[in-house]
Amino acid sequence: MIVLGNSATTGQQWQFPQPYSQYYYAHHTQILYRASELSASGAMAGYLSSIAFNVAAVNGVNNIPNYTIKIKCTTASVVTVMDNPGTFTQVFNSPGYTPVAGWNTHNFTTPYFWDGTSNIIVDICQNSQNWQFIGATAFYTPTAYNSTAFDYAFSLASICGLTNVSGFSPNRPNTKFANFPTTTANMFTYAWSPATFLSNTTQTTSIVTPTTLPGTATTLNYSVVVTPTFVNCPITNTFAVTVVNPVTPTITPINEFCTNASPITITVTPTGETFTTSV
User: Fold this and answer.
1) How far, CA to CA in Å, does 79 sit from each of 2, 4, 48, 188?
2) Rg of the chain's alpha carbons, rounded to an integer?
3) Least confident residue range of 172-176, 186-190, 261-265
4) Scanning 45, 63, 232, 254, which has the fewest C-beta atoms within 10 Å of its C-beta?
5) What is the C-alpha separation between 95 and 63, in angstroms, rounded?
6) CA-CA distance, 164 to 243, in Å (whole number)?
7) Distance of CA 161 to the CA centre of its chain
8) pLDDT tens digits for range 49-79
9) Which pLDDT score is estimated for 90?
10) Which SS3 state, helix, strand or coil, does residue 9 take?
């Protein structure tokens, strides 16, 4: 398990962000985790299979309706907007979730692949049919930057697909991720480009068999996009291959001559190159 945040600080029921709240009608929260923070906590590139939040007090919260968790990779290092929920991958859904005191673990229906270098955002949302004034208080650890965005609804309307934002905060709920760095080739798809001279474009390895004209040198930049079978953060690697096809020189034969003979001319094709002699 990877743990981010260990403070014993909690807020009030009405304060945001909170991963489990029934204050007002609906709640939408996005939480940013930097790659450097994940790595420092021991995370390695690989699959994330669950997320957990630590609740100090439930405060009567129960049966949170339409509770969803989504994840996406991002280059953002600070939360400045509510990111488009339509660009996330949903990993957890409950028609009615009731939190408990202590760690609440949400096992992903589909593991999420983290590339080890991207920051990630977790999107939490729920829509309620009832206006209530209760919220479970979770332990949080302040970050040095705005790591969360939150929104809530005063009217009976869904906000889970929207980018509305009510505020930002550096207070990030203490979080656990289950991280499995071990992967195998069949967990990914492969796309090589360009296809020129390649034996295949969809396997883990491809053989380059050049067929260039004699006397030419060609440099081709190949790239392979490695995408996890479960979508998420694709990885692109690029490398260059220089193909050189030298010409076999043609030398015009001459007759035998004595060591004290006058200098003679030897003609070699092609011209313009450097040649050495051997005796």
Assistant:
1) 22, 17, 22, 30
2) 31
3) 261-265
4) 254
5) 8
6) 54
7) 22
8) 999 999 999 999 999 999 999 999 999 999 9
9) 95
10) strand
CA–CA separation, 49 vs 181, rounded Å? Answer: 11
Contact in structure between 84 and 16 (CB atoms under 8 Å): no
Q: Which of 152-161, 189-198, 231-240 has the lowest mean pLDDT?
A: 231-240
CA–CA separation, 80 and 25 (whole Å)? 24
Residue 262 has what DSSP assignment?
A: P
Contact of 5 with 175, CB cutoff 8 Å: yes
Could you please report the per-residue DSSP string of 208-232? B---PPTTEEEEEEEEEEEEETT-S
C-alpha closest to that of 94 among 127, 67, 115: 67
> What does 166-217 look like in DSSP terms, one character per residue?
SEEESEEE-EEEEEE----GGGEEEEEE--TTBS-SSSS---B---PPTTEE
Burial of 103 (C-beta count, 10 Å sphere; 0-12/13-18/19+): middle
Measured CA to CA, the distance from residue 52 to residue 173 in angstroms comes to 10
In the structure encoding, which two tokens stand for residue 24, read together?
Answer: 């007002």
The tokens for 35 are 């790659």
d(CA 47, CA 181): 6
Q: Report the percent of the chain where pLDDT is more than 90.
A: 48
C-alpha–C-alpha distance, residues 42 and 2, integer Å: 6
